[in-house]
Design a protein that fits this description.
Elements: H1 3-12, E1 41-44, H2 46-53, H3 59-67, E2 69-71, H4 74-86, H5 94-107, H6 118-135, H7 139-157, E3 161-164, H8 167-176, E4 181-184
Parallel strand pairs: 1-2, 1-3, 3-4
Helix pairs in contact: 1-6, 4-5, 6-7, 7-8
């Protein structure tokens, strides 16, 4: 086994985790409304794009989005683009939705897109596996969790803070990997 793989296994120590994790109180988490030190770089979770597309992203957070470096992931792009196949093609409302998604994706600068590398994939796989085992997630939950773990591991590896409203999954990941920074928001 490669030394890089062993380094990732040692980072997460799967053997040390045997009990389900409990969500922490929101007062223990960093939120847009209460954070004191503004992060330098934000990696957006898919929830950010969805809320922006729906004009539901909190006004308090819009200023921060303009004031920090925004980073993107092909993982969020894939989650957004899946709507192209999921939406009913003959529905009159489908085309405008696809056009809005395409416009958001086209605005993302390539130079600010972080593609998960082999190390990120390994660490995300270990992290999502531990959480799936501890929380007894079913197959569908595990697949969704892998995407979240890819975003979390990417943000940690590249010095970004992950911005999300998904408190449930990312609180648990941060408990397993406290070095990962997450900034939450509410709608």
């Amino acid at each position: 086994m490669s030394s890089e793989l062993w380094r990732s296994i040692r980072r997460y120590k799967p053997e040390r985790h045997s009990r389900p994790l409990q969500r922490r109180a929101e007062s223990e988490l960093d939120f847009l409304e209460t954070i004191r030190v503004k992060p330098a770089k934000l990696l957006y979770d898919t929830t950010v794009y969805i809320d922006v597309l729906r004009d539901q992203f909190p006004v308090t957070g819009q200023l921060m989005l303009r004031a920090v470096e925004a980073w993107h992931s092909p993982v969020t792009e894939a989650e957004l683009i899946s709507a192209v196949g999921l939406l009913e093609p003959h529905n009159a409302r489908t085309r405008p939705v696809i056009d809005r998604i395409a416009a958001v994706i086209d605005q993302r600068p390539t130079r600010r897109t972080i593609v998960p590398d082999v190390i990120v994939w390994r660490e995300a796989s270990i992290l999502s596996g531990i959480l799936a085992r501890l929380q007894n997630f079913n197959k569908d939950q595990r697949r969704h969790l892998m995407n979240d773990a890819l975003l979390f591991a990417t943000a940690r590896r590249y010095g970004c803070t992950l911005l999300t409203r998904n408190i449930g999954d990312f609180d648990l990941m941060q408990q397993l990997e406290p070095a990962g920074r997450v900034l939450f928001y509410r709608m």
